[in-house]
# Entry
Amino acid sequence: MSARIVVTGKIPSAGLNALHDAGLSPITWDHEHQITRAELLEFVKGAEVLITLLTEKVDDELLDAAGSQLKGVCNVAVGYNNIDVAACTRRNVRVTNTPGVLTDATADIAFGLVLMVTRRLGEGERVIRSNQPWQWGMNFMLGVGIQNRQLGIIGMGAIGVATARRAKAFGMSIAYFSRSPIDKKIAEELNATQLSLDDLLASSDVVSVHCPSNDATHHLIGAAQFKMMKQTAFLINTARGPIVNEQQLVDALDAGEIAGAGLDVFEFEPKVNAGLLTRENVVLIPHLGSATQETRAAMATLAASNAIAISNSQKPPTPVN
Ligand code: DGY
# Structure
């Protein structure tokens, strides 16, 4: 009998085909509605490998529900803050993610937000869509240029580097804050300056968040950090919502401590703080970082490769633990 591979939400057919080609018969949550917690706890029973989405919390309760035969949890995301990795490790359950395949898609969205918020593109679109009268004018809806401005990257992993490359092509200078050193060649290519977090916040015109979400980065950016930023600076977040204290972001915007924000992720996703919704100087998009057809297919395929390796008791291509 083939291993019980349970897929907790709809994933692109490329991933499912890879599983079938490997002789596995995945059981997929196929209903129109997203799986509820109660349904999830029931659905995972007896799974040998779980393929999970970032919307599913994998904790002791879920691992208990799955049962002791569980060998792996393969997240279809590079971020895995939805998974209690320590709990999985205690039970010898492998955790995997999907790094690499969504780097460009996410960097595109991060830089798209930079352009949107600095050039007031969302606001401009709202003017037209709401049938407000408008006329080209020398002083009409002026934004700020990004050339010769500093982009400060928090978390210089693959996505941070890819975002920096885009920014450099647009004439920005690059500073970064990273706990781990980056490749010397990349630092040279980008002419990137490593700064402390405080110095980066104080000197950057745009600050873009690209670090993982974990206990150490929870609310890394809050009231004190907004006060350090320039009043003309913009915050971009395409990483995870809880890295930024969302209420304190609203407070900082209200107080004019920063100039605006571009957000793809939210602290209490999918809820968005009401104080953000009415602001013109904030661009809000619904977690679209990896949302291209090609990227999602690649993520599903990589998650499937991880699941296949685990079910064959082999080392998966992209392990977390
Ligand atoms: C990820 O992979 O972590 C992204 O947030 C998914 O869009």
User: Anything to note?
Assistant: The mean pLDDT is 97. The radius of gyration is 21 Å. The chain has two domains: 5-100+293-311, 103-284. The CA atoms of residues 108 and 163 lie 7 Å apart.
